[in-house]
Design brief:
Helix content is about 60%, strand content about 5%. The protein contains 14 helices and three strands. β2 and β3 form a beta hairpin. It is globular.
């Protein structure tokens, strides 16, 4: 389904949905009691509501990266290979710059950059650079690479390096999530790119289903089959514990905790089980939403069309609100200037609010950001001749 801007509405709606869920996760980071010190997926300390608040946000990164590949393919249908190459490689380096310089600052407001987190925007940037070279391969070869990396990268889980040698750092970038100190500065390699590059490659191939001449009914059949297959494979791999995740599930002392253990899949790096349980339902959502147009989809559309603008804006707003909140209750705002002790500042041990408050703040922030996001979306639509807008 396409609108007057020639963009595929269902893809933008799905992207908008995951952007909203992403804001929920980040609101929890800044506002939930204990979020600076505890893991919401830790079965010893979590609750079902907290666990699934975190679990539903698992859809954000994989869906966004998958659709980034799809968008790259669709962009390339209107451009030459050389033009697509130039766009992907320049955008990739731009995203890496934004990740290191801008994103790290707005998350922590630390001018010393004492803690550098290489997270999702960094991973997307690297993946786009790699994809810029991969696009010259036949589509079947790209598909094979994507399947191999996504399905096979868990065979590398047993390779664990330590230290800050060049070889170790390269491995952290590729496959092992790791925190290390380099010259007094902490670095977090949070998004190892082997599985993410496999996913963006699959997303690129997925774009072929949305070519103008592709039969709509056939696309829906493919989406249903692939989506259902992903979900079935998730239950097979996860249920048998034979492959697909670094941490197997296990029976707990209660049925509820056993269910939580089953769905407690590994994100860093994203396991095969993690990707199956997120991408499968996302594809089925695309089928369900393809011909739907109402007030809700119109709202989601706005966020899905200005994701980078919305991303940076919502982090700034959440961080500022967290500072305001700590001041209101008599705390020290400087505790929200997070250095290399990020999320481990002992002065924040008693900081935070209930999950109910987290949801209220999330709804308020999303509502607030809808209006500047809509304004920027309209500006982009009316200024398509400005090439630099495609980088923002």
């Amino acid at each position: 389904m396409q609108n007057k801007s020639k963009r595929i509405t269902s893809i933008d709606v799905l992207r908008g949905l995951v952007m909203l869920l992403m804001a929920l996760d980040h609101t929890r980071d800044y506002f939930h009691y204990g979020s600076f010190f505890s893991d919401p997926t830790n079965l010893d300390t979590t609750t079902p509501s907290l666990f699934f608040t975190r679990f539903i946000t698992h859809y954000c990164a994989p869906v966004f990266i998958f659709l980034a590949g799809t968008s790259a393919f669709l962009y390339g249908t209107k451009k030459s290979k050389s033009q697509l190459f130039k766009f992907l490689i320049t955008r990739g380096f731009w995203l890496i710059f934004l990740s290191i310089i801008v994103n790290n600052f707005i998350w922590k407001f630390d001018v010393t950059y004492g803690f550098i987190v290489l997270q999702v925007i960094w991973a997307i940037g690297l993946c786009m650079i790699l994809l810029s070279f991969t696009i010259y391969l036949p589509i079947k070869a790209i598909l094979a690479i994507g399947v191999l990396l996504v399905a096979g990268h868990n065979t590398l889980d047993g390779i664990v390096l330590k230290g800050s040698s060049f070889t170790s750092i390269i491995w952290y970038i590729l496959h092992q999530s790791q925190f290390i100190m380099i010259d007094g500065r902490m670095f977090a390699f949070a998004y190892p790119i082997i599985p993410w590059f496999g996913l963006i490659s699959l997303g690129y191939c997925f774009g072929t289903l949305y070519k103008k001449d592709f039969n709509t009914d056939l696309r829906r059949k493919y989406l249903v089959r692939i989506g259902v297959s992903c979900i079935v494979l998730f239950f097979i791999f996860r249920g048998t514990n034979m492959y697909g995740d670094l941490v197997p599930w296990s029976a707990q002392d209660t049925t509820t905790k056993t269910i939580l253990s089953f769905f407690n899949v590994t994100k860093y790096p994203p396991s095969l089980s993690y990707l199956l349980v997120t991408i499968g339902p996302a594809l089925l959502f695309l089928v369900a939403i393809e011909n739907v147009k109402n007030k809700v989809t119109n709202i989601l559309l706005v966020f899905g069309r200005v994701p980078l603008f919305y991303y940076f804006l919502h982090i700034v707003v959440l961080h500022v609100l967290a500072i305001v909140g700590i001041l209101i209750f008599g705390g020290d705002w400087e505790n929200m200037i997070l250095t290399n002790d990020v999320f481990r500042n002992a002065k924040l041990l008693d900081y935070g609010y209930s999950l109910f408050v987290v949801y209220l703040v999330w709804i308020g922030v999303v509502t607030l950001l809808y209006f500047p996001s809509r304004t920027y979306m309209r500006y982009k639509v009316n200024n398509r001749d400005k090439w630099w807008l495609s980088y923002l």
